[in-house]
Amino acid sequence: MITGEKNSLKKWMILDATTIKLIALFLMVFDHIHQMYASNGAPLWLTMLGRPVFPLFLFIAVDSFRYTSNRKNYLKRLLFASWGMTVITTLLSILVPNPDVVLMNNAFSTFFVTGLYIQFWDWFVEGIKKRKVTFILKSFLGCIIPVLCTAPLLLAGALSANEKIPFILIRVLVFVSLLIPNILTVEGGFLLVILGVLFYIFREKRIIQIIILFIMSMAVYVLNRGGIQWLMCGAAVPMLLYNGERGKGLKSFFYIFYPAHIIILYLLATIFS
Description:
Blueprint: H1 2-11, H2 17-37, H3 44-49, H4 53-67, H5 71-95, H6 107-130, H7 133-148, H8 151-159, H9 167-179, H10 190-201, H11 206-223, H12 236-240, H13 251-271
Helix pairs in contact: 2-4, 2-13, 4-6, 4-10, 5-6, 5-13, 6-7, 6-10, 8-9, 10-11
């Protein structure tokens, strides 16, 4: 009976990793259309559709991080992509200014910091299992790094209150803080990093992952006194249908599409607003 129930559930698991990322990508475009055209009256439902996007990408990114043969290279790719997004969005804002759109899009920074904390978690677990104090210390010291990397941003905030400080210096400090992924500048906030790490810790327990997603969605609803971010719980449906298979991959496509569609949508919104 138990075996039959498991087989019955597996029949519904029809989505591989690539398909889930394509679903998230499709919803993400609607979300970013709203971002670019909100000042022109873009309907709220566009961004409501985008709320499950980050949890879905995190869910699959965590699975990829789990199975990758070279975590160091994986993190390098995310870091380089994060730097690229920072440069692209900064140049766009300077060369083609649009006061109605704030470009802070850099999901790669969130994935990178999430990957770091997953690695720190694994060092901690290994240290406990093997009774290696060095691994435990390395884990705790590692956790502090993304916190210390907030220093340029905090300094910029402190200096901005002084009218004698050149504005260009503050702008440079902000740019540097965006180049160095940290807990304050990750897109979506540090709560999403925590969600990603919890997805990893309970990677063998799909139901627990979904319960965590719902708890965080409720917490966001309470903390924000409403809003729409709680709709990220909609990611639970594709998560339930995930079959654990990689699919076609299309790794390069996703790395290219993300910055490309931001550039195109921003330019269109700026030129035709």
